[in-house]
Amino acid sequence: MNTCNGVVSLAALLLCxxxxxxxxxxxxxxxxxxxxxxxGACHGLYLTGGLGPELTPKTLAGKPRDSLIATVRLGRPxxxxxxxxxxxxxxxxxxxxxxxxQGAPIP
Amino acid sequence: xxxxxxxxxxTALLLSACAQAPLRGSGDLGLVVERASxxxxxxxTSHGQALARLDGxxxxxxxxxxxxxxxxYAYVFGRDGGLTKIDLLKQRIDxxxxxGGNSIGGAISQDGTLIAVSNYVPGGVKVFxxxxxxxxxxxxxxxxxxxxxxxxxxxxxxxxxxxxxxxLFDSGEIWSADFSQGNTPQITRYSNIGKQPYDALITADGxxxxxxxxxxxxxxxxxxxxxxxxxxxxxxxxxRGEAKLPVYKMPHLEGWALANNQAFVPAVGRHQVLVMxxxxxxxxxxxxxxxxxxxxxxxxxxxQLWVNFAYPDNDRVQVIDSESHxxxxxxxxxxxxxxxxxxxxxDQLWLSVRDADQVQVWDPYSLKRLTRLxxxxxxxIFFSSRAQQMGY
Lengths: 107, 392
Hints:
The complex is a heterodimer.
Chain A lengths: L1 H15 L8 H19 L13 H4 L4 H10 L15 H13 L5
Helix pairs in contact in A: 4-5
Chain B lengths: L1 H18 L9 E6 L4 E6 L4 E6 L9 E4 L5 E5 L4 E6 L4 E7 L3 E7 L5 E8 L2 E6 L5 E6 L12 E7 L3 E6 L4 E6 L7 E5 L6 E6 L5 E6 L5 E5 L7 E4 L22 E3 L2 E5 L5 E6 L5 E6 L4 E6 L5 E6 L7 E5 L5 E5 L5 E6 L6 E5 L4 E6 L4 E7 L3 E6 L9
Antiparallel strand pairs in B: 1-2, 1-32, 2-3, 4-5, 5-6, 6-7, 8-9, 9-10, 10-11, 12-13, 13-14, 14-15, 16-17, 17-18, 18-19, 20-21, 21-22, 22-23, 24-25, 25-26, 26-27, 28-29, 29-30, 30-31
């Protein structure tokens, strides 16, 4: 029983480790794909906007990183922007927002 | 004497036949949009093969196509405002222009002479001569409160009587533009039709125009036999008071299904296909499905419906029996199934599997996959049989 608990908490510890790390290269590739293809369904393949607003560095300039993260995490009630927190971790979202702010390269 | 005349004539005929591609029709042709590379493939359904790839069509996010009535030309509407006229037989771009900043789809008029494009930026509809692509009419949408932007336009369809009907996403309106009296359209505006119409459909007979609402429950319906009766709400009560699930991709109403006197449409924010009685438009059922439905497409004989889903369930396709409302097959064609298109008489279903870089051809009766064709991140598939269908 104790051993079992030990294993569980060790697993929990291990699971916690990536919380402080940026997504690895493989995950970054997945996120780039998601951004171009799935975010791109509304925001445009080149993020020039559509049903959702333009997400180029020019239009995002001056917008606080935290509020961008909140928008991705929680969505925007009253708009078509869904909450992504069920599918993306905080690290994923932080990385995506930084990627957008730096100018996501055109696929 | 006669013989010596016939022989050279026959030789000349043969030679000219060798110099050109053999004669063929275009009723079995179609386009596959390769979204990320700005290209389309011309495909042929009689032998399930690709004939050609055309490049240089710009940003093809959400691209769609309509066909000329002679089924020779396809008109492709790109996200970047590009309008491209493709000659399916010569396999080349016939004409191309950038008509707007950001657009979402188009339609061809009842008589085939006009092409209408709906734009997000600048919000409105532009109408072009189908032969020359010269601008015929510009219909700016309602100016929004900020005084700069105009409402984005969605759900543009052709309607009987040389009309185009469309919805205004931001201002919650439906407009009808009547070109029957010439190139200066007569516009009829219906306001307060509901919040955020996101897409629309028109019934096959061209009678009912129905816009799906994103900002509230239900659909806005205009009876084009009785436009004086105004816009009515249908499905207004479904799911009232329930929390909606997140929608990671907007459902589409094109290809919606009418079968067995019932209409089948995707629910918004619920993992359901909604069923209405198509005679009184009352909801009769809600069919539980695997995810947020994107397309609910009826096999042309109406007996079965094929449904695909938004991310993260977009690797699945479910087949529903229109009579029993049972899900009779749960297919996994591959990652990111974006679109499904039946051949005109329904002997084949083609579907695009974006993340597998392939288009698949299925037998929709045996539910078996017939073949796979390579395609670069394919999205929309459009067959020339659409040329003879209203609302396509």
